[in-house]
Amino acid sequence: MVGSNAFVVTKFLLLVLLPSMVSGALLGKDEKEAMLAEHNQKRCMAGVPALVWDDDLAKAASSYADTKPGGQHSTALGAFKKYGECIQGACPHNDPAKAMKFWYDSELPEYTAPFTATHYTQVVWKATTKVGCGKGPSTNLCDGGKLYVCQYLPLGNQYGKYDDNVIAPKKDKSQCPLEASSATASDGGDDDNAAHVMTDEKCQCKDNCAKRGESYTWCHTTDSCKDNWDYCKASATVMTDEGCQCKENCAKQGESYTWCHTTDSCKDNWDYCKPSRLFDENVVPNMAVSSPNMAFLALAMFTCALLMVGAVVAARRRAKPANHAQGRDLMEAMENSEDAAMLE
């Protein structure tokens, strides 16, 4: 009975609990918005409708990215027959902007005929309406980086349909800025470099919080609060997602994601960041698996070990009566043999 229960519980842990503790490869909110914005900027430049994000495509792309495909497309699963697909990887750093540079910027000059620049043509394919992307390790392509997989519906790169669906750029990037969120778009035309930091008196900065020749940090405000300026707290020690140091506050600054200019050449002088992520050189970077996940994983492994020990003990206990009976029978046989010998 104990062994049966142990098997049932162990099966539950392996099939239900443990998979739920493994981090998926779905893009985070900021990364997803950045990837969609990159696609739609290039489509805007061609004058074709914007794409919408599709969660089912994103899940499928994430599952495939987790298989560490390198540069191999998911043709066995239906790529280029059921859906379109773009893959890109880079080491040690990667982001949606780099992916789009590979898919679009590097291939646009190479497009001279159908099937000559299939990443570029899929990104701008007019009839495509949905995209979903996932990420995984860059194994089998390069070491220590990130791989992006994006899948599209309806699929592009269809023979005989290039003229209607691949349209050369009509606008430049300045005419098709990356989409800004509604919160950023409603800031009333403040300076594009404003960090949107709140001052000590709850006014809103319209530029970065810095000393500007004073002994304290301050900024110009967006209204008449505090005579159009106020004290504020600088956040120059904010670190970016790739470990670069911001030289200004981390904010959306006209984009759909939060970012900052960096103090060195890391990440093309800018990088994604989180407003509340302050740098502390004495703190060890977090592991890729969160502490709660690690705790659950350890607990599950400990439980499995206990159940296995219980099953072994139970099996031994069931075996003891049989062993004793066999020993008793052997002793009786030996005694009977001795009695027979004495009678002879």
Sum this structure up briefly.
This protein is α+β, with helices and mostly antiparallel strands and about 350 residues long. It has eight helices and nine strands. The longest helix is centred in the last third of the chain and has 53 residues, at about 290-344.
Rough outline: flat
Mean pLDDT: 74
Largest sheet: 4 strands, mixed
Secondary-structure element pattern, one letter each: HHEHEHHEEHHEEEEEH
Oligomer: single chain
Strand content: 5-15%
Structural class: alpha+beta
**Unreliable stretches, pLDDT < 50, 5 or more residues?**
9-24, 180-196, 276-293
Span between termini: 51 Å
Task: Describe the fold and architecture.
The protein is flat. Helices cover 37% and strands 13% of the residues. The chain contains eight helices and nine strands. The chain has a four-stranded mixed beta sheet with strand order 1-3-4-2.
